[in-house]
Design a protein that fits this description.
228 residues; mainly beta; Lipocalin; 10-stranded antiparallel beta barrel; 1 helix; 8% helix; elongated
């Protein structure tokens, strides 16, 4: 019997988490501020490989997240924003592809204590960027299933620390036309990594946080969150 590929296993794991969360979600609890809205500024670097080619993608994103907080254990949400992806090699190296990203996500509190909270988030991100000039056109499509486990600890009344683990992979399809006509499949194999950061509680104005990532992608994320 052939063994399932890591790519299919990772995709299946993330989709299973999203499906299970949707099945469990149902009981609605009253909440004066049921929507958790976030603004995210992200700068990342991802190493990719293809047959005969190793490449590096430098990713910049500005976008939003929105999660329904009616139930602490299951919070369905959506990720949406604008993306720039620069590749160091191949036809895209001379261009500056930009476009969008979008994807579903589910998060929940697995355990909550007086000073610590343990959370899980499953997401599936799709990115599409494009650029062209008089000689060349390049389109890049990016697929990224991801599972995050985070431990949040309260250091002071308004300051929290975040330490977490990330598991996932990235698959990209590069299509080029013009002076160079070719297609390439670029992959970041499934990897287990981590992330850490600080979050400042601003009271009624929300939270502001900074997170360092070292997993599928390495980099930094600045975010602002507020409940409505």
């Amino acid at each position: 019997m052939p063994r399932p590929s890591p790519r299919r296993f990772t995709h299946a794991l993330t989709l299973a988490a999203l499906t299970a969360a949707s099945a469990v979600y149902g009981e609605v609890l009253p909440d004066e501020e049921p929507l958790d809205f976030g603004l995210h500024l992200t700068r990342l670097k991802t190493d990719l490989r293809a047959p005969g080619r190793n490449d590096t993608a430098r990713i910049r994103q500005i976008g939003i997240s929105a999660f329904d907080r009616h139930t602490p254990s299951i919070q369905p949400g959506m990720l949406l924003g604008y993306a720039w992806i620069d590749l160091e090699r191949g036809p895209a190296a001379a261009l500056a592809p930009e476009g969008y990203y979008i994807g579903p996500a589910v998060r929940g509190e697995l355990w909550q204590g007086a000073r610590f909270t343990f959370t899980a988030t499953a997401s599936y991100l799709y990115q599409r960027v494009h650029d062209s000039n008089s000689a060349q056109a390049v389109t890049l499509q990016w697929y990224q299933p991801q599972l995050d486990l985070d431990l949040l600890g309260r250091l002071t009344r308004s300051l929290r620390v975040r330490v977490g683990a990330t598991y996932g992979r990235a698959d990209a399809e590069e299509r080029s036309s013009g002076a160079i006509n070719q297609s390439a499949s670029l992959t970041r194999d499934a990897v287990l990594g981590g992330r850490a950061g600080l979050e400042l509680d601003l009271g009624d104005r929300g939270q502001i946080g900074l997170t360092m990532h070292q997993a599928i992608s390495d980099g930094v994320e600045l975010y602002f969150q507020r409940r409505f």
